[in-house]
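On clarity, I found the account of how folds are encoded harder to follow than it need be. Since the whole study asks how a given chain folds, the encoding of that fold should be made plain. The format is easy to grasp once an entry is in front of the reader. For illustration, here is how one protein appears when written out as sequence plus structure tokens.
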Amino acid sequence: MAQFGSKLGYLIRQRSLQVALLLWVLICLGTLWLCHGTMPLPIGPHPDRPAAQVISSSIAIVFLVLEAGLVALITLRRPLPDLAERAPERAVALRETVFLWIYGAVVLLAGRFIGIHYFGEAIAMHLNGSLVGATRVQSPIEVYTWAAYNGILLGLVPYAVFRLRGYSNQQLNLKSANLKSDVMVIFVVLAIGCFMDLVLGPNITNLTRHQQIVGGLLTFVVHMFGTDLPIMIFIYSILAPRYARLASPVTAFLLGAASYPAMHVFESWTRYDSLSNSVLSVLVVFLFFFPPGIMKSFLTVRTGNAWVHLWGFHAITPHVTLDTRLIVRDFDIR
């Protein structure tokens, strides 16, 4: 108990955590202020209740912190991996981080313009309707283009470049140091996520058996290339060790958590046609994606294995459990 109190006191004293908590409060208040009682962005089932999104996101943070605590308990006897040792010296790590983010920003921005030009909607990190409710039907070619664009430019290319620079899979957080422990963590996190998905709302169980099998497999494949692998490689394979080299452990963890929403600033439901909508779009992106970013970052920092977050908290839940309905509709699977 004394050790727990000591660790809690250490966390509370961290300036980066204090700043993160303050920013979260400002994000919540800023969202409510800019919405004026109605969410102008096409996100969520209740645009007339933006406060509900703020409250649910805050509850999600509490729940995921508790879940992270459970993972910490499961891995209590496991030594904490030193991610900083997997990164190059500080100057090189900073240079690689900056250039990777510049590259990522160009790819994401280009995807927005290319998608709007050819399909009428941006190529983002998620398909239209993923997790938030669809506003249109996407063609199969659009879905395949999305998966190929993100998979190649945000997954394959960064991985190939850093492997050519001499970094091993272990240095890229892609090799398990304790497979038995990693499998246990994946099983627990996956079980919790699937349970929540299957009891809280519409999900894959609402489909026919044929739709579940065909749509589920197709959903798994396209999301693996369209968002799962790109997020894992870009943030939790490459950036996470460099954050650990450049900052304190708590700050590095928070940077990993914040990087997840940062990759989603051009989601299909974001609007950048006015200053108010632009600010609101960024705030809602962080409101929606920062909570899962916390869990993804924690799983990577605690295990040193980026695959853990992918299998436990991305590929199956929520995409197969929830987004199979989306793919079934887009591909007209009956």
User: Anything to note?
Assistant: The mean pLDDT is 94. DSSP finds eleven helices and no strands in the chain. The radius of gyration is 19 Å.
